[in-house]
């Protein structure tokens, strides 16, 4: 049990380390100094309060999409539709933020709840299709992503604006932005959303580890036959898992809409917050605390990478490759797990 | 001496345990050599050492007198050692021939010469009297036939020594008889056989010598002709074992389970239970005897709510329970020890403690306001673990880590502890050793004596004859005979199970 726990912590750390090493080799190969490159990366993420604030800002939605995907994984479902759920959540939050007039104490919670609901509905549809008709959730959620993307674009252009490329800014009463946090971090875009994300992580832990619902969800995830035998409704649990998962992803969207940007722009492609959440969940071993730590790492990489071209002269394309390599090794921690086990076997 | 295989003073350690300690097995050419031991005694480990999956720490292996180093299963294959696995390794949609040549396909210009392979397989099958159709699909042939395909697979690869891993666990009495004929034919053709088993009767019937392993230690090798079942059992378990389960005469009272004209379809929408009638009274054990696939699984799934019925009624204490949800059925007083404990009985990745409350987790005191109370759950688990002697490092250990016998004990603890009016036990002792079987039979009889109704489904006639107070023979989805265990024997049951005595059903109903 104990050695198992250590193992679970050790594997991601080694993965990250190997990823960094591989990135260094690439930089060397192209004639750049890897130490300078990584110093730039580190500075870009933590070097001064502004960068640190940006890292936290980026971490916030990652925590929520990571939780969304981890939650579905626990029930044996692969919610690849977090991306679409983020989009509908974002749109819903901005919609409430721009059209409703209310005092802050009502406006913010209302916008958050509607965003979570929108994401939940986006998760409910593939959940029901899976439970009732056995349609695989991966296919449906991928399609739901496109529906979300283009519907959101259409709504922004035709409903929320008169053929403009972005919505108006949300009312100050709906904004999560904080002058205090901004001041603290030299005017980064850090906002109160991080508190909501951390609270959501606690909620996820509580649901999974302490409630009847969590017990049933895990049971269904591990063994549907035994769950049915024990009198649980497998179908109900599948739908429920997708709904809760979608709600987390919807909240992630609201972080962007109410916190970082304050509006929503017509977009030709995905934000990748939902897709990155898959890697966050995997690296975090589908546990709440793991997701928070992994999201922080991803946030730091994403933000820190922006500093690499300016400070170390590493070209943008190479930076993308290096970050991708780190994520690659992190995501394929399975290989590292296998190697360690193999060494253990040989050593004995 | 002309030993084909010698495993001398083998020792195999795993972190924390010694799985094999100073075990010696010597296989003579042309003999059937039994490897006898309880579950977890180390039989499989020893055979995996022989098969090259594990390397021994001490001891040596000799093949035909020459010392060999079996580094991996390929080496074992080259040395002429073949294994007939307990769980068949067959690709269902493939034909017999395709399965047999898998991994060593005869090719011509990169194309598989399936006609040639079919001819060879058919020749092999005919030579040993296996009666396998080389062109049949695996999914279309019976379990017994599938096992013969496994045998053919080893023969096709040129095996001289065949290891059978608990081959009779999945077979009907008729198929067991045929398997024994096949083994004799193999011996006659100069092959040698190691038979892994814990069924003493089979050893007495067919084996020449028997090596006993107990708790990883080699106890010794005996000539089967010079021993008997009682002695073998004592050697295996390390104490005297009673075979005849002690029990009083049943005193059945009111009818608990009453099934009338039940029809149930399987997943392919074919009727498997066809107008079945059955009563079980409080204070009796009714044994369902039958060949696998005659509607037993569908019957149990219908009673427990896992499957919808198509017609007929199932009444529990005079209340209709057919087509209720599994939870409703459980709550109305049905306990179920499922046939497949890994698929249905346990969530293997849950700790054993959480498996103990699999059907009751939502009830007070385990849960209040939908929040689980782990303290209560584990208190309950620990008390059941000690009461039912489940051997586990702790209640927090994952169910997966327990041995089969202890997993089954945990399931039985859970089901019996709920004190259901009707307890359904499907193959409750499959794959378990004598000690665990004794324990489980005693528990079933204890429950009977407390006035519970017990429905026992088993493919083991010994078990049916030994434990039941009344035997109902199932054939083709119907109960075709009700007999008393005192007035019948294996031969008669075997015939009834094959459907040869339909008239008797009419007399008895």
From TrEMBL, chain A:
Keywords: Cell membrane, Membrane, Transmembrane, Transmembrane helix
CDD domains: TM_PBP1_transp_TpRbsC_like (cd06580)
Membrane topology (UniProt): Multi-pass membrane protein
GO annotation, cellular component aspect: plasma membrane
Annotated localization: Cell membrane
First-listed, main subcellular location of the protein, grouped into a coarse class: membrane
Claim: Phosphoprotein is one of the keywords in the record: no
InterPro entries, per the entry: ABC_transp_permease
GO molecular function list: transmembrane transporter activity
Transmembrane stretches, start-end: 7-30, 80-98, 104-125, 137-156, 190-208, 238-258, 278-301, 321-340
Name recorded for this polypeptide: ABC transporter permease
The organism of origin for this protein: Virgibacillus salarius
TrEMBL record, chain B:
Compartments where found: Cell membrane
Membrane topology, as annotated: Peripheral membrane protein
Segments forming domain ABC transporter: 5-240, 257-501
One GO CC term on file: plasma membrane
Residue ranges the record marks as coiled coil: none
PROSITE patterns according to UniProt: ABC_TRANSPORTER_1, ABC_TRANSPORTER_2
Keywords tagged on the record: ATP-binding, Cell membrane, Membrane, Nucleotide-binding, Repeat, Translocase, Transport
Top-rank lineage group of the source organism: Bacteria
Entry-linked InterPro entries: AAA+_ATPase, ABC_carbohydrate_import_ATPase, ABC_transporter-like_ATP-bd, ABC_transporter-like_CS, P-loop_NTPase
A Pfam family assignment: ABC_tran
Family annotation (SMART domains): AAA (SM00382)
GO terms, molecular function: ATP binding; ATP hydrolysis activity
Protein family per UniProt: Belongs to the ABC transporter superfamily.
Protein name from the UniProt record: ABC transporter ATP-binding protein
């Amino acid at each position: 049990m104990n050695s198992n726990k250590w193992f679970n912590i050790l594997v991601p750390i080694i993965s990250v380390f190997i990823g960094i090493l591989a990135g260094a080799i690439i930089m060397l190969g192209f004639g750049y100094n890897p130490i300078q490159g990584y110093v730039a990366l580190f500075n870009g993420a933590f070097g001064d309060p502004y960068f640190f604030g940006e890292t936290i800002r980026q971490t916030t939605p990652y925590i929520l999409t990571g939780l969304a995907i981890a939650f579905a994984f626990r029930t044996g479902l692969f919610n690849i539709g977090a991306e679409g759920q983020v989009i509908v959540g974002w749109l819903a939050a901005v919609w409430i933020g721009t059209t409703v007039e209310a005092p802050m104490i009502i406006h913010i919670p209302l916008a958050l709840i509607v965003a979570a609901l929108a994401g939940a509905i986006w998760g409910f549809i593939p959940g029901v299709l899976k439970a009732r008709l056995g349609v695989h959730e991966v296919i449906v959620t991928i399609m739901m992503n496109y529906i979300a993307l283009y519907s959101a674009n259409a709504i922004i252009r035709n409903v929320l604006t008169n053929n403009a490329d972005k919505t108006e800014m949300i009312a100050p009463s709906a904004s999560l932005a904080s002058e205090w946090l901004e001041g603290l971090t030299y005017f980064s875009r850090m906002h109160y959303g991080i508190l909501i994300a951390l609270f959501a992580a606690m909620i996820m832990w509580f649901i999974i580890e302490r409630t009847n619902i969590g017990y049933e969800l895990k049971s269904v995830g591990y063994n549907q036959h035994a769950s049915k035998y024990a009198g649980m409704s497998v179908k109900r649990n599948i739908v429920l898992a997708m709904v809760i998962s979608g709600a987390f992803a919807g909240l992630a969207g609201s972080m962007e809409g109410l916190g970082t940007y304050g509006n929503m722009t017509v977009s030709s492609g995905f934000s990748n917050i939902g897709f990155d959440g898959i890697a966050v969940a995997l690296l975090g071993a589908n546990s709440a605390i793991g997701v928070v730590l992994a999201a922080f790492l991803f946030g730091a990489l994403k933000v820190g990478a922006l500093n690499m071209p300016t400070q170390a002269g590493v070209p943008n394309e190479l930076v993308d490759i290096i970050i991708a390599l780190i994520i690659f090794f992190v995501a394929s921690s399975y290989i590292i797990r296998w190697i360690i086990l193999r060494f253990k076997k040989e050593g004995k | 001496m002309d030993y084909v295989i010698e495993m001398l003073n083998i020792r195999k350690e795993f972190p924390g345990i010694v799985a094999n300690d100073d075990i010696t097995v010597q296989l003579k050419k042309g003999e059937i050599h039994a490897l006898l031991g309880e579950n977890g005694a180390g039989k499989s480990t020893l055979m995996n050492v022989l098969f090259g999956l594990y390397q021994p720490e001490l001891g040596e292996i000799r093949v035909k007198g020459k010392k060999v180093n079996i580094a991996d299963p390929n080496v074992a294959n080259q040395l002429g050692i073949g294994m007939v696995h307990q769980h068949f390794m067959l690709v269902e949609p493939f034909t017999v021939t395709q399965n047999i040549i898998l991994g060593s396909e005869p090719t011509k210009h990169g194309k598989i010469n399936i006609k040639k392979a079919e001819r060879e397989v058919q020749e092999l099958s005919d030579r040993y009297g296996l009666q396998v159709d080389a062109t049949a699909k695996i999914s279309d042939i019976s379990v017994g036939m599938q096992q013969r395909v496994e045998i053919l697979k080893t023969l096709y690869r040129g095996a001289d020594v065949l290891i059978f891993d608990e081959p009779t666990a999945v077979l009907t009495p008729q198929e067991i008889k045929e398997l024994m004929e096949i083994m004799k034919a193999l011996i006659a053709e100069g092959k040698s056989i190691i038979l892994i088993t814990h069924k003493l009767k089979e050893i007495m019937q067919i084996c020449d010598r028997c090596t006993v392993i107990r708790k990883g230690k080699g106890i010794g090798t005996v000539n089967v002709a010079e021993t008997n079942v009682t002695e073998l059992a004592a050697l295996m378990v390390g104490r005297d074992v009673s075979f005849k389960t002690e029990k009083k005469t049943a005193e059945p009272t009111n009818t608990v389970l009453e099934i009338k004209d039940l029809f149930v379809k399987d997943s392919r929408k074919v009727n498997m239970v066809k107008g079945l009638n059955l009563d079980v009274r409080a204070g009796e054990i009714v044994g369902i005897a039958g060949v696998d696939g005659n509607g037993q699984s569908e019957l149990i799934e219908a009673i427990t709510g896992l499957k919808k019925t198509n017609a007929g009624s199932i009444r529990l204490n005079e209340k209709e329970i057919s087509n209720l949800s599994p939870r409703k059925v459980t709550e109305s007083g049905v306990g179920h020890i499922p046939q497949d404990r890994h698929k249905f009985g346990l969530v293997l990745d849950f700790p054993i403690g959480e498996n103990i409350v699999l059907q009751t987790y939502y009830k007070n005191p385990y849960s209040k306001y939908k929040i689980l109370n782990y303290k209560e759950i584990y208190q309950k688990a620990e008390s059941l673990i000690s009461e039912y002697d489940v051997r586990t490092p702790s209640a927090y250990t994952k169910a997966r880590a327990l041995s089969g016998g202890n997993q089954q004990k945990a399931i039985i603890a859970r089901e019996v502890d709920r004190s259901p009016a009707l307890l359904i036990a499907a193959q409750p002792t499959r794959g378990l050793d004598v000690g665990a079987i004794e324990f489980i039979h005693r528990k079933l009889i204890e429950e009977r004596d407390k006035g519970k109704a017990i429905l026992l489904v088993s493919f083991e006639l010994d078990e049916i004859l030994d434990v039941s107070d009344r035997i109902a023979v199932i054939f083709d989805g119907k109960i075709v005979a009700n007999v008393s265990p005192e007035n019948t024997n294996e031969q008669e049951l075997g015939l009834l199970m094959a459907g040869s005595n339909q008239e008797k059903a009419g007399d008895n109903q």
